[in-house]
Amino acid sequence: MNPRLAQLHPYPFQRLAALLAGAEPPSELPHISLAMGEPKHPAPQLVKDALCANLAGLSGYPATQGTPALRQACADWAERRYGVALDPARQVLPVNGSREALFALTQCLIDASGGDKPVVISPNPFYQIYEGAALLAGAEPYYLNCEAARRFQPDWDSVPDTVWRRAQLVIVCSPGNPTGAVMGLADWDKLFALSDRYGFVIASDECYSEIYFDQPPLGGLSAARALGRGLDRLVMLTSLSKRSNVPGMRSGFVAGDAAILEKFLLYRTYHGSAMSLTVQAASIAAWNDEAHVESNRAAYAAKFAAVLPLLAPVLDVAMPDAGFYLWAKVPDGDDVGFARALFEQQHVTVLPGSYLARDAHGGNPGRGYIRIALVAEPAECLAAARRMAAFCRSRQPASSA
């Protein structure tokens, strides 16, 4: 067996299951899970129609590069969304969701054959695929703590020169999971300058980019355009899962540096990662339509508007920049104990923030927080918020007479 498998950590939901094992929540309260970031809104009818109309595609082997029509639809969407003109033949590559692509891209990029161990830099807290991909590629993960004092953004200036010199890949997540924070243009400018100096690739995970409440979040492609630079050493990854409520389709695309995508296509040809022609047809329908995305965005905004007034008086929590998570600070700092007790007393599941982070640079930046995924139907989210508010009030010390 690959000895690097032994370095992998249990997934957050494995740890959550172990935490809640043996708990006996009140049976009269139906279970509400706000732990997993799995979209629950209905899939768009136009996507279902496209799937059914193209079932003949199941009879053919798809090309790894995808059909020209799909690549063009992705490029057209990127131009509408980011104002960037992409070559659909060289700068766009369909993938089976951003998670699969993040892992595979890391395997493709990392060169562990030299004397110094390569480094993959990622935010902390983070999506655990970043870490697992780095470890299995033979790289050393370097965790950049994202804390409230810095708008939940990484502090690029805190990274030692010795680390930058070994860095081969920097993964950013904007809007962030779990914080919902969005990188500003100054953050991008600094990161691009570091990439120019040290030569690392930037992988920009933007799978939450279309769930926002005011202005569209700045992305890597639009930041490069605004700064008057090309797409050298930049790869953006996006997905239909959250945007279009079709996580089961496993459909997204990567875009950016043509030289990197040329090698990534070669890797994927051997990896066996081609997207079904049926799914490609449905993906074209999704990328070409914005009406369902606007409706989806409005549905999330309505849930935040209903839930936040109930939770803000009892938890340190605020509206995120984007995404569908609330990143809430618990009163006593014990996120694990809070999650266990909430489940035991109110039959509501949330994810301890410390499960999404690693101890680094003197602390775990997820400790003391919980991640609340507002993915369920509005009535469930509202019921969960009421139970959470009651739970928090029950833990408050009685005021002295």
From TrEMBL:
CDD domains named among the record's database cross-references: AAT_like
InterPro entries reported in the protein's UniProt record: Aminotransferase_I/II_large, DapC_beta/gammaproteobac, LL-DAP_aminotransferase, PyrdxlP-dep_Trfase, PyrdxlP-dep_Trfase_major, PyrdxlP-dep_Trfase_small
Molecular function terms from GO: succinyldiaminopimelate transaminase activity
Gene3D superfamilies named in the record: Aspartate Aminotransferase, domain 1, Type I PLP-dependent aspartate aminotransferase-like (Major domain)
Cofactor(s) named in the record: pyridoxal 5'-phosphate
Pfam families linked: Aminotran_1_2
Name assigned to this protein: Putative 8-amino-7-oxononanoate synthase
Organism: Chromobacterium amazonense
